[in-house]
UniProtKB/TrEMBL annotation:
<dbReference type="GO" id="GO:0071949">
    <property type="term" value="F:FAD binding"/>
</dbReference>
<feature type="site" description="Electron transfer via tryptophanyl radical">
    <location>
        <position position="384"/>
    </location>
</feature>
<dbReference type="InterPro" id="IPR002081">
    <property type="entry name" value="Cryptochrome/DNA_photolyase_1"/>
</dbReference>
<dbReference type="Pfam" id="PF00875">
    <property type="entry name" value="DNA_photolyase"/>
</dbReference>
<feature type="domain" description="Photolyase/cryptochrome alpha/beta">
    <location>
        <begin position="1"/>
        <end position="129"/>
    </location>
</feature>
<keyword id="KW-0274">FAD</keyword>
<dbReference type="InterPro" id="IPR036155">
    <property type="entry name" value="Crypto/Photolyase_N_sf"/>
</dbReference>
<dbReference type="Pfam" id="PF03441">
    <property type="entry name" value="FAD_binding_7"/>
</dbReference>
<comment type="similarity">
    <text>Belongs to the DNA photolyase family.</text>
</comment>
<dbReference type="InterPro" id="IPR006050">
    <property type="entry name" value="DNA_photolyase_N"/>
</dbReference>
<feature type="binding site">
    <location>
        <begin position="277"/>
        <end position="284"/>
    </location>
    <ligand>
        <name>FAD</name>
    </ligand>
</feature>
<dbReference type="GO" id="GO:0003904">
    <property type="term" value="F:deoxyribodipyrimidine photo-lyase activity"/>
</dbReference>
<feature type="binding site">
    <location>
        <position position="274"/>
    </location>
    <ligand>
        <name>FAD</name>
    </ligand>
</feature>
<feature type="binding site">
    <location>
        <position position="225"/>
    </location>
    <ligand>
        <name>FAD</name>
    </ligand>
</feature>
<feature type="binding site">
    <location>
        <begin position="374"/>
        <end position="376"/>
    </location>
    <ligand>
        <name>FAD</name>
    </ligand>
</feature>
<dbReference type="InterPro" id="IPR036134">
    <property type="entry name" value="Crypto/Photolyase_FAD-like_sf"/>
</dbReference>
<keyword id="KW-0157">Chromophore</keyword>
């Protein structure tokens, strides 16, 4: 008996419920990853994300080797390619479920094709500590506010990590021929996939890289996370978002890690705050699962009619990090150059785009997806809807003043100096209050502020007040 395990956003062989279950049935567990042209060709695909994905696959191939098996690569529509490969190998197919509308629709297609051909298949929830159906209000409804979600979610028992895949049986020579005929190819290079990533990503992709980040975070930053997580010049967060997006590290292992940290420092608030971030991730994924319309619309439907101004020139300046607001520009340049942006800065630039520039949050959401190494529909969409005040868990209307944010969270302007080098000769107080004279700006080659924050926020509030509250 042979089982094909179809990898998607679970690029690891450790702490994987589906792989573990497959291995309980048979030693012949073969991995497969299918490059889906529909995903690769999307106009919101970031080269840095494809780079990270490809490197993780190269690493995963080695891990499969060590487990005595192999990871096959396909590049085709999975609805045809997966059943074809399964049929050729006479194998069953296992995979982990997803929350995204496209993924669910694709899975249904594969599911149906496999059923028609009488191929055994099984699906599992793996990327979440709790599947969407496990967390509901007393009346069985999904939560749309985070705090009660967290209360419920944090009280539920969590499953321990699953053991690593090992001692598998390889394909025979004949089977290898068969899989090649069924479309298996060597792992394409980034260029062959049609992408190029000239920038830098400081962290090693793959399981070892993710585990190194976790170990580093566990040495000290996690214990001061509550105090330090908002300062973009400090390495105060885990930087595990890309690893989590692609499932390079298992969520149960991360939970176990937090439990170990709490054993070392019982009741440590910072560890609990970090657990809450993992819960935010699940909150948004549950939201996407229950309300697929979120992918394209505001959760608060009345905001679909909001009178965004959508000024193209403002948008271009925001994308390029040329708005004349130092903290906004620093953040956008960090994104453009590295494919990652600190969470505090994501909130600042999202507030600026929507509330100062009056641009539809979906424009920002798309630009983020086009550039983020960790770009993830649920987290990104959730973050943007939250920042634009159109989503689940609507806080009191929150408009970030970029200068106040910079003063609070980059008090030495260290982050700004790093990413906006033309301002390095300007004094800290001047930068933080953004009181740089037109003459100085001209001399430094740094733009005038494209809008006036005070004026724009008034304008936003006027438009916001026209929207009915209900719903
Ligand atoms: P840590 O602070 O170490 O947090 C640990 C993990 O928890 C993260 O890796 C992430 O998986 C999860 N997490 C943390 N905060 C959030 C959150 N607010 N929502 C959901 N999950 C969270 N995160 C993404 O993974 N992909 C995105 O595309 C994305 N887009 C965002 C867009 C906007 C406008 C905003 C405000 C936030 C967005 N986030 C996104 C959430 C957050 O900014 C990143 O997860 C975080 O900065 C990643 O850094 P880290 O791994 O060091 O996080």
């Amino acid at each position: 008996e042979c089982i094909l395990f179809w990898h998607r956003r679970d690029l690891r062989i450790e702490d994987s419920v589906g792989l573990h279950t497959a291995r309980l049935h048979t030693p012949k567990v073969i991995g497969v990853f299918c490059f889906d042209p529909q995903i690769l060709n999307r106009d919101d695909m970031a080269p840095v994300r494809v780079y990270y994905l490809r490197e993780c696959l190269a690493d995963l191939q080695q891990q499969y080797e060590q487990a005595g098996s192999e990871l096959l690569i396909l590049w085709a529509d999975p609805i045809q390619a997966i059943p074809r490969l399964a049929q050729a190998l006479q194998a069953g197919v296992y995979w982990h479920q997803d929350v995204e509308p496209y993924g669910r629709q694709r899975d249904q297609g594969v599911n149906q094709a496999l059923n028609e051909q009488g191929i055994v298949q099984r699906q599992f929830w793996d990327q979440l500590l709790h599947a969407p159906a496990e967390i509901a209000t007393k009346v069985g409804q999904p939560y749309t506010v985070f705090t009660p979600f967290w209360k419920n979610w944090s009280q539920q028992d969590k499953v321990a990590p699953y053991p690593k895949l090992e001692n598998c049986t390889k394909l025979t020579e004949i089977e290898r021929q068969v899989v090649q005929n069924a479309g298996a190819i060597p792992l394409p290079s980034l260029k062959e996939l049609g992408f190029d990533w000239p920038g830098q990503w400081d962290y090693q992709p793959g399981a070892e890289g993710a585990n190194n980040l976790l170990a580093e975070f566990g040495r000290s930053a996690i214990y001061s996370y509550q105090e330090q997580r908002n300062f973009p010049a400090i390495l105060g967060t885990s930087r595990l978002s890309a690893a989590l997006k692609f499932g390079v590290i298992g969520i149960r292992s991360l939970w176990q890690f937090t439990q170990d940290c709490l054993q070392n420092f019982p009741g440590n608030e910072s560890v609990i705050v970090w657990q809450q971030e993992l819960a935010w991730r699940e909150f948004y994924q549950h939201g996407m699962y229950h309300f697929p319309r979120l992918a394209t619309h505001s959760h608060r439907a009345q905001f679909d009619d909001f009178a965004w101004e959508n000024n193209q020139a403002y948008f271009q300046a925001w994308c390029a990090g040329e708005t004349g607001y130092p903290i906004v520009d620093a953040a956008m340049r960090q994104l453009n150059q590295t494919g990652w942006m600190h969470n505090r800065c994501r909130m600042i630039v999202a507030s600026f785009l929507t509330k100062d520039l009056l641009i539809d949050w979906r424009w920002g959401e798309r630009y983020f997806m086009q550039n983020l190494i960790d770009g993830d529909l649920s987290a990104n969409n959730g973050g943007w809807q939250w920042s634009a005040s159109v989503g689940m868990d609507p806080r009191p209307l929150r408009i970030f003043n970029p200068n106040t944010q910079a003063t609070k969270f980059d008090p030495e302007a260290e982050y700004i100096y790093t990413w906006v080098p033309e301002l390095r000769s300007v004094d800290v107080p001047q930068i933080l209050s953004n009181q740089i004279t037109p003459l100085e700006r001209q001399a430094l080659g740094y733009p005038e502020p494209i809008v006036n924050h005070q004026k724009q926020q008034q304008l936003f509030k006027q438009k916001y007040q026209l929207i009915p509250r209900a719903g």
